Amino acid sequence: MAKSVDEFNKKRLRSSNITVVISIALVLFLLGLMGLILINAQKYSDYIKEQLVVNAYFDENYDAKDSVKIAKLEEETFKKVQTLAPVKKATYISRSMAAIEAKKSMGIDSDALFEENIFPSSIEVALKPEFVDPAKIDEAIKEIKSVPGIIDVKNDSTLMVDVYNNLSRILKWIFGFSILFLVLAVVLINNSIRLKIFSKRFIIKTMQLVGAKRRFILKPFIIEAIILGAIGSVIGLIALGGVWYYFTSQIGSAFVQDNNQYFWLVILVLGVGVFISVLSTIFATWRFLKSNVDDLYYS
Predict the structure, then answer these.
(1) Are residues 284 and 257 in the same domain?
(2) How far apart are alpha carbons 188 and 194 in whole angstroms?
(3) Exposure pattern of 92-111 as b/e (b: 16+ CB <10 Å)?
(4) Both 179 and 277 in a single domain?
(5) Is 83 in the same domain as 197?
(6) What is the per-residue pLDDT across 138-186, written as a single tens digit (0 to 9) for each?
(7) Which residues span the domain enclosing 252?
(8) Are 21 and 40 part of one and the same domain?
(9) Cβ(232)–Cβ(23) below 8 Å
(10) Neighbours of 233 (CB within 10 A)
(11) Domain check: are 112 and 239 in the same one?
């Protein structure tokens, strides 16, 4: 009879542990998935911002005999523009290249409608994402325009402001959902741990009544919480990696784009899983340590 009771208790314990691990894994999977979406949304936002370029123009009026001198000056100006703080990438566009681009945009193959090199040479500047901010873009344009050799800088400021505001709004929503998932992770993992500790409330009280110190009673529960939290986190991360790999392979995108950010996401998920498990275990166990024996039947 005693053996059957022991076997029943062991099965119930294993079932309880499996339930906690699965709960932790599922919750952290969703939390990690939201983290991946947030990371890649930020990258995609930065990518779009970098496509919003400004054009810095050189003087188009100069004597043909000074072409070599002008070419050297434009090269020096281009190098200076590349070193400016707001500049992410700069591309030099010569007069001949500008003419080719103009003909492509107009769908013209003939040179009959164009005089030779009627378009001025210029520099196409992609700004760093933080300088696409409407509050900073004017300063960036002024800084580019102050470089000797640049006579004019043009950009579609209305488009830039609209894109920036829309992207910022989307990122705020994604960030808000990430915070919500973090709160849900705390609540759900906490509830799973509390139910597990609740099933052992009589054991906890018995140990206390026979003289065991609170620290001694807490220790095995904390160790178990660390193990369960770590196992649940690892399972959640494995599932997350599999889903993310399948998704990125389907859309043809690289699986790993920034090792550093993914590394910190893994650390965050592991830390959240273990930390919440341990914290919930301490609070749930402490509750029964402070309660009376009669309260155990009504908790």
Answers:
(1) yes
(2) 10
(3) bbbbeebbeeeeeeeeeeee
(4) yes
(5) no
(6) 788 888 888 888 888 887 656 666 766 776 777 788 778 778 877 877 7
(7) 1-47+163-290
(8) yes
(9) yes
(10) 27
(11) no
pLDDT in tens, 204-255: 777 777 777 878 878 888 888 899 889 988 998 999 888 888 877 776 665 5
Cα–Cα distance measured from residue 127 to residue 137, given in angstroms and rounded to the nearest whole number = 9
Of the candidates 109, 103, 276, 274, the residue with the CA atom closest to the CA atom of residue 189: 276
CB 121 within 8 A of CB 92: yes
178 and 279 belong to one structural domain: yes
Distance CA 180, CA 186 (A): 10
Q: Which residues in 94-241 belong to E strands, given as ranges?
A: 122-127, 150-154
Q: Do residue 108 and residue 246 come from a single domain?
A: no
State whether 265 and 178 are in the same domain: yes
- Here the CATH number for the domain that contains residue 60 is 3.30.70.3040
> What is the rounded CA–CA span in Å between residue 246 and residue 240?
10
Q: Which amino acid belongs to residue 155?
A: N
Is there a contact between 148 and 77 (Cβ–Cβ < 8 Å)?
yes
- The Cα 64–Cα 56 span in angstroms is 22
135: its two tokens? 């509050």
